[in-house]
Amino acid sequence: MQSYEKYLKKLKICPFCYLRKEEILKQNKFAILTLAKAPYIKNHLLVVPKKHVLTFGSLKKREKLAMLKMTAYGMKKLKKKEKNINVLYREGDKKIVRKSINHMHVHIIPNMPIGMQNKKWNKKQIYSDKEYVKKIREFKEDL
Fold first, then answer.
1. What is the CATH number of the domain that holds 84?
2. Degrees (nearest 5) of the Cα angle 90, 5, 36?
3. Which residues contact 31 (CB under 8 A, 6 or more apart)?
4. Each residue of 35-90: pLDDT tens digit?
5. For residues 16 and 32, what is the distance between their CA atoms, to the nearest angstrom?
6. Domain total for the chain?
7. Which residue range forms the structural domain that includes residue 30?
């Protein structure tokens, strides 16, 4: 795994706009469910709109519905593996809300308190492409 800060500095394109087929757990017409490449914790999922937008409000009604359906699906599947889950959506100033990717997304996070008490933010790591695809395959096996 590499440092998330280094990854962000080298980032030239939106990582959510260019997800590879093997990185997608499930998709519908407007939304994608994937495993977080820079997870807060094991089995951290993301729901991402296929259209590059910054806010939920920028989506059309049918796109919002697709996002909600995909979030519900991800929650249902994760509840089979994990006792406790959080759904997190951040909007606003990136530094204040600690959002690092400018593409609207929803986090589905198991067994982790969410909020300012998370002191490990600056130490977050990111999987290499090889590790990430391996984690995706492992997760898919349990769906």
1. 3.30.428.10
2. 50
3. 47, 48, 49, 50, 63, 66, 67, 69, 70
4. 999 998 899 999 999 999 989 999 999 999 999 999 999 999 999 999 999 999 88
5. 9
6. 1
7. 2-141
